[in-house]
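Task: complex structure prediction.
Instruction: return structure tokens for all chains below.
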Amino acid sequence: MKSIFLNTALALALIIGFTSCESSSDYEDETPSIANIAVSNSDFSTLEAAAIQGGLAITLSNSNAGDPSGNFTVFAPTNDAFSRLGLNSETLGVLQDGFLTNTLLYHTSNGDLMGSQLSTDQPASSLLGLNRRFVERDGELFINGSKILATDVPASNGTVHVIDKVMIATGGDIVQSALALQNADVFITPELTFLVEAVLYAELAEALTASEGSPSFTVFAPTDQAFKDLGAALGLTFEVPSDIRQLPQDVVASVLLNHVVNDGGKFTSEMFEGNTAPLGGDALMYGPYMNGTLGITGQGNQAPANMVIPDVQATNGVIHVIDQVLLPVL
Amino acid sequence: MSSAAFSQTGVSGFMKPAKEGVVSFSSSSESYDKVLLVPSEIDGVPVFNEVSINSYNLYGEYGLSDRFTISINIPYIQSEGEATSATLAENGFENKRDGLQDLSLNLKYLIKEFNFSGSSLSLMGNLGLETPLSSYEVDEGLQSILAIGNQSTRVNTVGIATFKLNNGVFATGQLGYSLRSEDVPDAILSQLKIGYAAEKFYGDVFIGAQKSTSGVDILGEGFQGFFPATEVSYTRIGVNLFAPIYKDFGASGGFSQIVDGRNIGTATGFYLGLNYSF
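Output:
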């Protein structure tokens, strides 16, 4: 009788085993999607949250309908890359959803762009419509100002390369980029409001607006707090942007031109320690290149300004948001 | 990432004698913080970090005759996540979904019984219907990780074989097919249970499985954020216990664990119930 029992149990077990048990061995050799790579890798948890908030998690789960290969190439910033901007999955809410979406699109392109194809001679287009360029420095490859840490992570719908800084582009020129920050189209709270006011006051908006054949610049953009600190240092009170008009117009113009370098627009990866001549004022001193950034010192500054948001690409240059106003010798 | 609790066959391997029945109220709790995605398990449920599901079930079973047993189950489900307030605010999500889930109605028929000296083999067929009792949400994008069900109507046909020794030891095997509406993939259901059933005590250990016959993988090709369309397959093991406590009242309890699968959380669950037999 025991044998009948055992045989019955064994037969049932076999039926169940062969018909319906699911095992991870059934699929563990499958290649994950780009979205799945972000979700399953703890180094990409901020990217995961960004893709969810920016509405791209589903897009990056599927084949790319916009490319015959069905693939995407994504330059994926690590959690440390987001942390440089003070961002993590808990703080992404400081960004507007639309800007976050565009930022992710700027990291993404159609088709497979393999590591072996990345070349300083060949810019790479992005789904935002803007090109990114590759830079070689000390034997390492950068895309814009972001170091490429790893290449060719295979995904079912494309390829992932890992980068150490978030790439940022507003899609506009230098003035439009500043206005985007001022209008809270980037952060949910306005930023660069004093700078925009100063540019208007000094009548420099036209010079920094892209037009046919116009030059490209490297621009150092002081934060609102930087202007408030300047006001305090000058014995003035800068509470609202129009307070900048307490200063003579020619002084403001001179200080602003001290923030603009007519060098074609350089990312941090393309900047080197030493002196650089801005459009006006006195020479700027670039500090040593460390951890992907440089300090910038004006002749009238006591200490170097730090890059708060480096490497913002505009259509006519590159903007580095800094925490001090760069002063010429006044 | 719906819970396995939503898709059990919900039927036992035994018939109720004619005009005898049982009514029970049970409370179950399960939770998971790992999810079996394809191709690998991930640590932390996307958005919600950890998911806990509490359910309250009102269950009744009655022997219409010695050959027909009818049963009904009404569950109320609370599904809660552990997303931070910042994440909730960023995405407009909430950490809780709850409501009456799906009515389950089963009619079991004893097809044939073979009696041997010291043992018996019973062959049964079960026809089950499951249908939503409320209009709970299932299509809220990633918020639906907390959906309490999949808002489909299912017709389940299950074949059951129970081999029982007169000393109380038994083995039950179930194999069935679940036909599902609303873009929810059909599934093959199976279960093997070995236990001991006597007047003063009942206990079993089981291994059960669901295998979807189609569907997409979460974050895989074809996934559009609609979780009911995913291929939810899993294997789970568990224990059920029952003992009479006073007159016609008894207590039941159990444990289960998802051990393998795809597109499902590795849920660990417990339940406790109070039964009244008549």
